[in-house]
Design a protein that fits this description.
With about 475 residues, the chain is mainly α. It is built from 17 helices and no strands.
Length: about 475
């Protein structure tokens, strides 16, 4: 079907199909978004306050206002979208390909972000810019403009990690949260300005002695236990030998460990952290199923994703540290250029936990970092209020995809929009929007809303006037 330039249907027939009144529909969206937004931000701010060890004064004077502040921002974004959706329909006399999604979301998002606290605008802008970039890429792939590269997210992550690690190793390369995060993940040993005073070496924990049953009837069990204990002792002795007597280059700053144990300990530490993070993310859903499906509780600890995230973080750190040590041995110097190679090779760890979201977020942060460094060097111009403009454009792109081509939107964000609107975003009459040639109804299995014929302007298969017969093609 050839794509049309304009369709004459009303906003009731296309958008708020659950109620013919624009005002009532906006009120429905506001009510649902307000409830959901508060449920999102209340625990989020409370947990953040506990983790940051805020004082009592914060809980009494600032916690509730900040929650309401962010709640109003998110509610406004959802409400104004349907408001501008109806306004544009009345001004234009119909819907154009750009007006039903991008056109309505752009002013709504710009006004909404102005209500949010300035300290949060940057994070929101980075997230939405990341999401919009991914959405635009999927749109380009769907239209045949771009051909996807196999394992492209791994390649992009490797390049991003390479540059980030180089900046981490360079003087004044990274500052603030990015530097602190990499210092926590990689360790202070890879920072060139790391103090040369080694910490006191800890003593190894005493070996545990297995209790042996001395009863004669347990002779077979004793022999098996003796062999197991002997194997454990041999393994521990081998590991201690490697850790204590292995090689360490004079340029390496991990004074308490040799190069082998340095890499092994890095893997074990970050594997444990990654495993625990994934377990904690699954705990809330597990508690909800504790009584209805108790058999699923063990999956919190034995889920495949737990080990995948752990393997990703652990292998990233161990590959980076191992490559850095190897290059110091080969070149006999400690150079920040080593981080380019080590960071790129460490990026291969993304194969354990492929995530376009992580890759795009880190790439967006890298672009932001390079842009601000360019401003400091006088190479790039500074644009006031750039974060609000970028947020508005990025959000408008994502809303446009949610209306016109949901198949190209990240599934998690689509679920978020459904939650925010209490499922009303899925009630749009996308079969009529198929006239624009974007396959808007592809993921909705022929859903057609039932409309009140008294408030429709064009006869279609969605309405059937009383007493009339319509032959549908």
């Amino acid at each position: 079907m050839a794509a049309l330039s304009k369709i004459p249907h009303s906003c009731y027939e296309i958008g708020h199909t659950w109620h013919p009144s624009c005002v009532q529909s906006a009120a429905d969206i506001t009510k649902g978004a307000l409830e959901v937004s508060f449920k999102i931000y209340a625990p989020l701010y409370l947990i953040a306050a506990v983790l940051r060890r805020k004082k009592k004064d914060y809980y009494l004077k600032r916690l509730i206002p900040e929650i309401l502040w962010s709640t109003s921002f998110l509610t406004t974004n959802g409400t104004l979208f349907i408001v501008f959706f109806c306004i544009l329909r009345k001004l234009l006399g119909g819907f154009y390909p750009w007006s039903s999604g991008f056109g309505a979301a752009l002013p709504a998002s710009y006004i909404a972000i102005l209500l949010e606290r300035k300290s949060r605008r940057g994070l929101l802008t980075i997230y939405m810019a990341n999401l919009a970039s991914e959405t635009l890429f999927r749109m380009a792939v769907t239209r045949g403009i771009v051909k996807p590269i196999k394992h492209g997210e791994v390649l992009l992550f490797s390049i991003t990690a390479s540059i980030f690690m180089f900046l981490f190793r360079s003087n004044d390369g990274l500052k603030g949260f990015a530097f602190s995060a990499l210092k926590f993940i990689i360790g202070k040993e890879e920072i060139p300005t790391h103090c040369n005073v080694a910490d006191s070496v800890g003593t190894s924990p005493p070996e545990r002695t297995a209790a042996i049953d001395t009863e004669p009837s347990q002779a077979l069990a004793e022999r098996a236990d003796h062999r197991r204990k002997k194997l454990i002792a041999y393994t521990r002795k081998l590991l201690e030998s490697i850790c204590k007597h292995g090689p360490r280059h004079r340029c390496c700053k991990h004074y308490q460990d040799n190069c082998i144990s340095y890499c092994v300990k890095g893997f074990v530490r970050m594997f444990s952290i990654g495993y625990l993070i994934q377990c904690c993310l699954k705990v809330p859903s597990a508690f909800r199923q504790m009584f209805s499906k108790p058999s699923r509780l063990p999956s919190v600890f034995y889920n495949k994703e737990n080990f995948q995230l752990g393997a990703f973080l652990g292998s990233f750190v161990s590959i980076y540290k191992g490559t850095s040590c190897l290059l110091r041995w080969v070149r006999n110097i400690d150079d920040e250029l080593h981080a380019l190679i080590a960071g790129f090779l460490a990026g291969v760890s993304m194969f354990f936990y492929k995530s376009t979201s992580i890759t795009m977020y880190l790439f967006s942060k890298l672009v932001e970092t390079m842009y601000f460094k360019g401003i400091e060097a006088g190479q790039f111009p500074y644009f006031p209020h750039a974060d609000t403009i970028i947020y508005a454009i990025s959000t408008a792109i994502c809303f446009h995809a949610a209306v016109m081509e949901v198949q190209n939107l990240r599934p998690s964000y689509w679920k978020f929009l459904l939650r925010l609107t209490k499922g009303r975003f899925a009630l749009m009459n996308r079969e009529l929007l198929d006239m624009f040639g974007t396959e808007a109804s592809r993921n909705f299995k022929g859903f057609v809303p039932k409309l009140d014929p008294r408030y429709t302007t064009v006869l279609s298969r969605t309405v059937l006037p009383p007493g009339a017969d319509a032959k549908l093609g």
